[in-house]
Amino acid sequence: MADVIIEKRELLFAVEGVKAPQSLLLEADLTVAGLLERVRHATGRHDLVEALIEDEESALAHHELVFERITIEDFRLIHVASGGEITVTVAFNGVKQRTFKPSATMAKIIRWAMHEFGIEGDPSEFQLKVGDAVLPPGEHLGQVAHGAKEVRLALVMKIRPQG
Q: Which strands, in side-by-side order, build the sheet including 86-91?
C-alpha cells in the first residue's frame, strides 16, 4: 500500500482581539470551516465563527478552500473573527462614525475618514491613533479593538522631522 502524502502549508492570519498575527501549519485542501475549527482549538476561543480576507466586507463561505482564496501575488491576511461589525468613531475637527468588519485595515479607515471629513491629499500623510498609540496602516481593526465592538480613534497628520 502506498503512503499518502498530505501537502501542508503555513497560514499567517489575524485573530480578533489579538495584536500579533498568528500562524498554523494546515492541509493544503482545508476548507474555511476546517480553518475555523483549527483556530478555535488552537486559541481556545469558541466565539470565532467567521473568516474574512483583509479589507473585504463579506465573510468567506465555510465550504471554500482557504488556499484557493489567498495568493502570494496578492497577499492579504485572513482575519478570524467573532462575527459582526465594529463601530468606529473617528475624531478630526469633529466626529464621524461607521461600522467596519474586523478585517478592515487602518489604511482603509484612513481613506474613509479623509473622504468623510473632506480632506484631500495623500492618505500616507495621515495616521490613526488610539490613545497615544499610533496604529500601523496594515493593522486590522479587530486587532485594535481587543474584542470590543466599539472603538474611538483620532485621525492625525504624520509629523515629519525638520532638519
A: 95-100, 86-91, 150-157, 126-130, 133-135
Burial 139-150 (b: 16+ CB within 10 A, else e): bbbbbbbeeeee
Q: What class has domain 86-157? A: alpha beta
Q: What is the pLDDT of residues 76-87, one digit of tens each?
A: 889 999 989 999
CA-based R_g, the chain, Å: 18
SS3 state of residue 43: helix
State the chain's maximal CA–CA distance in angstroms.
72
Cell of 123: 492618505
pLDDT, tens digit, 9 for 90 and up, residues 18-41: 989 999 999 999 999 999 999 999
Q: Which residues have C-beta within 8 Å of that of residue 117, sequence separation ≥ 6?
A: 92, 93, 94, 96, 155
Ordered by start, the domain boundaries in the chain are 8-81, 86-157
Q: Helix (H, G, I), strand (E, B), or coil: what is residue 48?
A: coil
Identify whether the C-beta of residue 71 lies closer than 8 Å to the C-beta of residue 54.
no
In DSSP notation, 113-124 reads HHHHTT--S-GG
pTM score of the predicted model: 0.88
CATH architecture of the domain with range 8-81:
Roll (3.10)
